[in-house]
Fold:
Amino acid sequence: MSLLVLGDSLSFHGPRTAHPVDEPRLWPHVAASSLATTADLHVGLGWTARHAWTAVRTDPRVWASVRTADALVLGIGGMDSLPSPLPTAVRELIPVLRPPAVAARARRLYRSRHAGLVRATGGRPTALAPAETVRCLERIRVAVTTLRPHAPVVLLLPSVHRSGLYGGVHSGRSAHVAAMRSWASAHGVRALEVAPLVTEHVLGGHGNPDGIHWGWSAHRVVGEAVAELLRPAEPVVPSGSSSGVVPRARC
Structure:
């Protein structure tokens, strides 16, 4: 099956920096390789579920990918759960400030004050409210599966972090995990619990020095777990039967 992957920066950052989306060590390609297929990545830095939904609505490259997708993998929602004491739009508008010196000063100010604001507000609000994350995920699911009704959907639940930029705070994660897990259960989406796979790696300092992104070992583990959720179950021979095998679907 061909994988359509919508993801945030965890989908294309490695242990030191960001990589082109065709880097084979990234978890989407690890998953695709395990399934002997390919992955088509549509990802962005800081993407929330709302950014991904906007891409599905407006980006012709995503439209083309949907037409050939055999499975949809949603590697989004983690950014949604991170603290955002200032509106996300404030961060996203910094690059358009002019002259460039003003943008540079605003960026330095944002970075220097952000962790303090996060701690002062207790990590609230988050980049997106859990209900808004789920609303966008559902719109993506409906849009893709309307055209590809037999495509299974996999959702990666939010990871963990130890980022100084966020003051080590991730108080909104549990609410997002609960909302996303509930949505997945209600719509037959296969949810992957990412945190148990990467917590030791991230909190132990084995990933990217930024405290958010993963090293290659974590990419491998997550990619293999995604593949396992999509891998068809092995055919089995019913007890007492001699007429061949009967395929058993995973779900």
Q: What stands out?
A: The CA atoms of residues 31 and 226 lie 6 Å apart. The beta strands are 3-7, 39-43, 71-75, 153-156, 190-192.
